[in-house]
Amino acid sequence: xxxxxxxxxxxxxxxxxxxxxxxxxxxxxxxxxxxxxxxxxxxxxxxxxxxxxxxxxxxxxxxxxxxxxxxxxxxxxxxxxxxxxxxxxxxxxxxxxxxxxxxxxxxxxxxxxxxxxxxxxxxxxxxxxxxxxxxxxxxxxxxxxxxxxxxxxxxxxxxxxxxxxxxxxxxxxxxxxxxxxxxxxxxxxxxxxxxxxxxxxxxxxxxxxxxxxxxxxxxxxxxxxxxxxxxxxxxxxxxxxxxxxxxxxxxxxxxxxxxxxxxxxxxxxxxxxxxxxxxxxxxxxxxxxxxxxxxxxxxxxxxxxxxxxxxxxxxxxxxxxxxxxxxxxxxx
Length: 332
Fold this sequence. Notes:
By secondary structure, the chain is an alpha/beta fold. Helix content is 33%, strand content 24%. The N and C termini lie far apart (41 Å).
């Protein structure tokens, strides 16, 4: 790693990989130097699109490229353990798309491997790095709405998605929960930590993927969270956090908000709006910048997206899947 610039490799060439690559190209202290895919043709096309110097037709070549400081793993969930593990074994720092892995067992294995190798590892939960979400958390932590009583959050896409689509393919970790539900679950974890009790219900597809899932979490404090995700209906992606002294509403796009409103007893509502200097609301640059900051500082994890928090979210997702009867083929 140079004094200022951090050299990135991207593993996979799908839509989220392209979105992230576009952000890296615009970051002055980031340099996108290599991309890998399962086919050389796909890697070369991606490299040409983003002006990347090296394109590899296999993962090993990228993992063993010593000129790379950080690898961004953007494969389907089912390949996160293998791809990230390969890169960690080769001495690379790694940013892994969410959901972090298929299950908590795989997540524990990756975290342990990063510890053994001394490398940086982070889940790409960009919501946690968003400036407005960080402001919301600060307000809640500082008692602006008193003790949290309830959380509501939803994330749904209208579809329809055919059975072979990755969002419905159990072999790729398909279903609403891991792809979309991870956001409401992570939002609840951000504010209240790991729940003490979990209830859930779902509608499953013929192939065994969850088409929509609803979950009710409870904490020893008496707080509750009502969460929903879907790949058969487009929701408002809203969220609300109610406390003993007030409420915070995010009217839409809670995981990358443009604004939120703080309601406090006896006061006029206060609106918090995204600073134009922070870029568009859907930017991934904040998580990229956090990774680069941490890597330059010699940190092995980010305080914004701590590994124990990621493990806790994976345990919760496992618990939800157990209750709705979803298992992936790799799990037996």
